[in-house]
Design a protein that fits this description.
The protein is mostly helical and 577 residues long. 58% of the residues lie in helices and 2% in strands. It contains 24 helices and 4 strands.
Length: 577
Amino acid sequence: MAGDTPRGTALDDAAQGGTALATAGGAAANGPAAGPTIDTPGGTATATDSDTAIKGGPEPDSPTDPETGDTPGGGTAASGGRRRARGLWTLARRHPAFSVIITTAALLRLVAMLGYQPVMFFNDSFDYLNVAMDPYPHPLRPDGYAFLLFLLKPFHSFALVAALQHLMGLGMGVMIYALLRRRFRLPGWGAALASAPVLLDAYQLQLEHLVLSDTMFTFLVMCAVTLLLWGDRPTWKIAAAVGLIVGLAWLTRSVGMPVLLGVLVYMLIRRSGWKLMAVTLAACSLPVLAYAGWYKADSDKFAITESNGIFLYARVYKFADCHQMKDLPVSEYPLCTEPANRLPNSQDGIWNQRSPFNRYTGTRFSPENNKLGNDFAKRAIISQPVDYLQVVAHDFFRVFRWDRTVFPDEATYSQYEFRTTSRPLPDWHMPRGGTASQDAKGYERGDARTQVVEPFAGVARGYQDVFYLRGTMIGAILLVGLAGLVPLWRRFGGAALLPWTLATGLLLAPAATAEFDYRYVLPAVPLAALAAGMAFTPEVRGTVAGWTRRLRRRGASTPQDAQDAQTTQDVQTAPAS
């Protein structure tokens, strides 16, 4: 994240205000010779040879390493390896709780890679692969993740794709820990605990092992949030980097647009200045406008997808009553469905063979159908706002249920789990020719079907049966983050406002625009965990402690005041002697 500092890495004891350095300097002052004083954030320390141990290596002018005798700059490769190993060991000793958690997380990801080789597939995986084999703007979803697959295609290795996504998962845990330790001064165990949900959740682990855009999207959003929170005020370079990353996230999943709005609102509240906000917006627009231009060149329409209206139609499919819509165009009559004939899930309005869109000729995800679906959905929402809010609330609060039930159907739900067997690669015909299995085999240059390898697969399945975040736990994490915003209400919750609102927005957006899905929950978890950790910063704890002291003073003064008042009244009413 950050480079080396005078006390080691960015994960060093920076949060303790230089305590370790001052202590070491004080101990050295009792030795035979004391060096010059050094100002530190925690006070003044004495510079002696003991500083070498704190900095993790010998002084630049030292002839040899005091532990190995190696000459700095002139050692062998083996001595360099020993120094790196000592550096890692020193880092692990400084952060013991986090070291245990991230090592466990890395081993779990290795087990998944060994147990399910080379990778696992979801239905949407083959759309991304089809684009990666011969890039074109996909009408259903933007191509950001497909571009990543395209860049990795020369290696012809799905195992490399899985490994990179697992590294992204580990990287998100590191970002949470680094922010809470360095920027917000939490103790090591507290910051490590906040990183655990993303590092140790079994369904997060399985999502990283799927050829899907969700891991990349979450990683990009976490990178943007980390950059924005790393300092008190972003520079123009940071603002540009945040905008560019959010733009890439937007092209990875369409829900990236609300992320941009959340970032800009946060910058406005934090008074970053309109110039920095303009830089962020401009940097975000660059990749998005370039992609829209490519889309126009291919399909003669300046857009990113042709699916937003169709997905919004799925949202209203469960309640839309054409009898309540005024002036409904005749062209939209085929989208009407009587309550007795409706299918059980909102997404059935798109994917089921009995979908109303099958009443139209041509391609389902066409500009014409997208326009019809969008107009119909807006009419339904305007004419039935209460029904719309009810379905949105129902799907939003489904997130926080304790039990994880099969939804929307067994075929879809099974793809989110480590199973004892794997499905054969499908033979669906793809938009630009060929079949899904041909794309997968061509990308891998060999058999790409998931191979279940025991005993590693059994370990992954057993872990997933027990160690996962239940919905109620996610709700508790969000409530802790919300409680942390309250003490800083005069500043709109402080820095924690950004991750908390983004987490809540990422949970609310699918409920408002499509339908609940388990994979849409996990991208909110790292942000919610970060916000929950920020609820225990010294600033928040100090504010709460001040409130507690004032309440105690008021409580302690009340009985005394009553006693004094009673004494005064007794004196005034006592008979004269």
